[in-house]
Amino acid sequence: MSNEHFWAVIPAGGAGTRLWPLSRAGSPKFLHDLTGTGRSLLQATWDRLEPLTGAQVLVVTGVAHIDAVARQLPGLPADQLLAEPSPRDSMAAIGWAAAVLEARDPEAVLGSFAADHVIGDEEQFRECVSSAVEAAADGHVVTIGIEPTHAATGFGYIEMGETLGAGPARAVAQFVEKPDRERAEAYLATGRFRWNAGMFVVRATVLLDLLAQWHPELAAGLRTVASEPSRLAEVWPGLEKIAIDHAVAEPAAAQGRVAVVPGGFGWDDVGDFASLGSLLSDADGLPGVRVLGDADRLRVLDSTGVVVPGTDRVVALVGIDDVVVVDTPDALLVMSRERAQDVKGIVDSLKAQGRTDLT
């Protein structure tokens, strides 16, 4: 199968609550430049897919972000930007794009790639995607399994089975949920497990037909929305809220319908400020201090950590190690880097107090 039928689908959703107060519901992380390259995560996703797809890209985002996405991606045709009336999880978003593509091109193959991930070796990434497109030709759902760099407990894992054909695709033996550290270390010791980054390559019709096996009403609703766009507001609220992993990938793997292409290109989902710090380099003259923004606003004495200066204020650090400081006009976050995952608790408490202006 040639790449002429290949389309990239970019689900651009989520609020990135563990990156608060930088990322918020009204300005989520995929709209931000988090790597200091001058391109947002969404734009970087477009940039690395364009050599494979050209303008054959569908972006699915929330109604609140349509204008911002359109501004950041001026090369994206208006009819390839789909606005979800409300969040219904990844199956509805990706399935809607699949139904739109199925109607346009019965041979369409889609690759779903989140808008907020960072990839190291982009050429190797594209080689993996091309291999996945080939493996999808025979009706497999193909995922790209990331080579683990440590025993992460924040990701799901994929167990690889036998090699399919000439490779590099391999059968998926099973998907496993986020493990504790002991199980994660056991997974790595076998050499058979890869991180599940939620990247899926599959023929659009195959995805919807598989969905129809286990969630027929959801599949029918998505095809209705694609064929009758005027019914979007009517049909969308009744669609089942479920992730693509649970809706299709896991049951299809049990039927031997899922393959994995191993990817060693370096990947990060920028899930929190500890992760963000690992993607940045030390600021000039400030060893151990990672800065996203204007380092001239920092004054540092015997300190290390991650700093995001987002106002005109000077940020001064004295005698503290592995700190995270995020300064925005209406909220200031200060925490230890080891507690980076716990920021979500602050966001939850603000929501409980009705402070949507801050979340």
UniProtKB/TrEMBL annotation:
InterPro entries: GMPP_N (IPR049577), ManC/GMP-like_b-helix (IPR054566), Mannose-6P_isomerase_type2 (IPR051161), NTP_transferase_dom (IPR005835), Nucleotide-diphossugar_trans (IPR029044). Gene3D superfamilies: Spore Coat Polysaccharide Biosynthesis Protein SpsA, Chain A. GO terms for molecular function: mannose-1-phosphate guanylyltransferase (GTP) activity. Keywords: Nucleotidyltransferase, Transferase. Residues 300-350 form the MannoseP isomerase/GMP-like beta-helix domain. Residues 8-276 form the Nucleotidyl transferase domain. Coiled coil: none annotated. Pfam families: ManC_GMP_beta-helix (PF22640), NTP_transferase (PF00483). It comes from the Bacteria. GO terms for biological process: GDP-mannose biosynthetic process. This is Mannose-1-phosphate guanylyltransferase. It comes from Pedococcus sp. KACC 23699. The lineage of its organism: Bacteria, Bacillati, Actinomycetota, Actinomycetes, Micrococcales.
